[in-house]
Specification:
MetI-like fold; 70% helix; transmembrane; cell membrane; transport
Length: 334
């Protein structure tokens, strides 16, 4: 009896291994890691840019700072003889700070009043419209503010400055002969106040809106009026936020160029007579006025004045951060 050999058995194919799917947690961790690296890189880029700007200003300003008064007088227009560069920049720093501080003093109370009205007094529809109009002021170019200051504000302010000079001339800010054209630091301060008003208002409004509702209701439940509630609950909570807003506005006022250049009649004096022409000049306006025709050492002198403005702005922001950090646990600034 014969037997037939059966064909060899073919092994069955191994089952395919299931593909491991990434869990939602792995994906989120990957996104988180990527986002962390992006934000770290952005922060490092900002620091690197700031350091590069500072190094550029220091390197290009060094020849002017170390030059002799004779060399500077030959290269820089309107440079007085036998005057050091620090003494030459002094009146520019004084004019810049005086204009910015006056603008801040004018704008901050008005901005706080507008912010409180929008956040706690006005009906919702009126608050939305008013908030939109105030924010729209920030979109107006500075050259338009300069034209408005020359064509509208200066003629309207001239009799007001003259009246203040006649009746309050004993006060240092109102002393001196008032200019009939009103192209003075007082007019510049009003224009700068209008320019920084939307910045201070917007930040203050958001801080006031963050006041805990329980604090407000507790004050009202104790019998406080609306103003007493604002004074005892809203303003203490938003104090550091208002300071931050004011410092942001101050930084804008310190660096403003075109509006100041178009309105102000320049001078290089240490003077508090804000109604008198040819008394003051700001750093930014001075650079914009002289840079197109500058060359050689004059360019280095202009960059040195820019370095002074850079240091002032940096100091203002550092001081603001110190104030906010001191009270951040008791306010809505952060």
């Amino acid at each position: 009896m014969t037997t037939t050999d059966s064909p060899p058995a073919v092994p069955a194919p191994a089952p395919a291994r299931p593909r491991r799917r990434r869990s939602t947690g792995d994906t989120e961790r990957g996104f988180s890691r990527t986002f962390r690296w992006i934000t770290t890189g952005a922060g490092a880029l900002i620091l690197a840019t700031l350091a590069a700007v500072a190094l550029f200003l220091v390197a290009r300003a060094f020849p002017a700072v170390t030059a002799s008064p004779t060399e500077l007088a030959d290269a820089v227009p309107r440079y007085p003889d036998d005057t050091s560069f620090i003494a030459y920049v002094g009146p520019l720093v004084f004019g810049t700070l005086l204009a910015a501080v006056l603008a801040l003093l004018l704008a901050t109370p008005v901005a706080m009043g507008i912010a409180l009205f929008i956040s706690h007094y006005a009906p919702r529809r009126l608050a939305q419209v008013l908030g939109y109009l105030v924010d729209l002021l920030a979109a107006i170019p500075s050259v338009v503010y300069g034209l408005w200051g020359i064509a509208v504000l200066a003629p309207a302010a001239a009799p007001v400055w003259g009246w203040l000079n006649d009746y309050l001339g004993w006060f240092p800010l109102f002393a001196g002969e008032a200019s009939p054209t009103a192209r003075t630091l007082a007019t510049v301060a009003v224009v700068l106040a209008v320019m920084i008003l939307p910045i201070i208002t917007a930040v203050s409004r958001e801080v006031f809106l963050q006041t805990p509702r329980l604090h407000e209701e507790a004050a009202l439940a104790l019998g406080a009026t609306r103003w007493e509630m604002v004074r005892t609950a809203v303003l203490p909570f938003g104090r550091s936020g208002v300071i931050s807003a004011a410092m942001l506005g101050l930084g804008r006022a310190l660096g403003e160029t075109m509006a100041v250049l178009m309105i102000l009649s320049p001078g290089f004096l240490y003077s508090f007579k804000v109604f008198q022409a040819a008394q003051h000049q700001t750093i930014a306006a001075y650079i914009a006025l002289d840079f197109p025709e500058a060359s050689g050492l004059a360019v280095n002198a202009l960059i040195a004045t820019g370095l002074a403005l850079f240091v002032i702005t940096l100091a203002v922001n550092m001081a603001a951060r110190a104030v906010v950090a001191r009270r951040k646990d008791f306010s809505g600034a952060n």
